[in-house]
Amino acid sequence: MKPAILVVDDDIAVCELLQDVLSEHVFSVLVCHNGQDALNRVHQEPNIALVLLDMMLPDINGLQVLLQLQKQRPALPVVMLTGLGSESDVVVGLEMGADDYIGKPFNPRVVVARVKAVLRRTGVLAADVPVPSVEGITFNGWTLDTARCELSDPNRNTVPLTQGEYGLLLALTQNARRVLSRDQLLELTHSESAEVFDRTIDVLIMRLRRKIEANPHQPALIKTIRGLGYVFATDVSHSEKAA
């Protein structure tokens, strides 16, 4: 059965575009034009694997829809669709646990790539091709698999990362012991498909600390250097291993 993607947007043209593009790949596509219909659809159809959610809906604010979706199905991935001027909504959405965001106008191919990446991380999609060997970055017993975009803890348990979290952790580990300003991190994690801004970095840092720090309130790995930026304050090693 094809994974079902629910597109929630009041712009009919956007919905038709996403439906056409996603249907050409391995997805079935459902469409809703308001928040209440989307919540009802998710409740009625457990096969929905991911929601593309516009933040500006005619009846319910997209953030409220996100909150209700998390109550209904906490494991359901949600990717926010955001327009110009919605920076604060993106920050709040990321803090609330949205998996990713895509800025409008968007490149349809990027949307497909983002959707596939999220579904691979959640196990709905298998990797496109077998990877004979992978490059791993290790630190304090953790391993960041740069081929599969996965993080494993010292007990070899996979720790889910959003695309933004993965990109930021990769940038930090590749520049370990080096202080990086927000501007540098923005440049290192820049994506053509989304608007990136200062506060996104702060939110992602907070979320990474919750996942990899023994005490997120007293971080030992990702440290804040007041007035300068952040530093990944431990040694890392790069190794190639068999998959």
Q: Would you kindly provide a written description of the structure presented here, covering whatever features stand out?
A:
The chain is α/β, with parallel strands linked by helices. It folds into two domains: 4-121, Rossmann fold; 133-242, Winged helix-like DNA-binding domain superfamily/Winged helix DNA-binding domain (Arc Repressor Mutant, subunit A). It contains eight helices and twelve strands. The protein has helices spanning 12-23, 35-44, 62-72, 87-96, 108-121, 163-174, 182-188, 198-212; strands at residues 4-8, 28-32, 48-54, 78-82, 100-103, 133-139, 142-145, 150-152, 158-159, 222-225, 229-232, 237-242. Helix 6 packs across helix 8 (198-212).
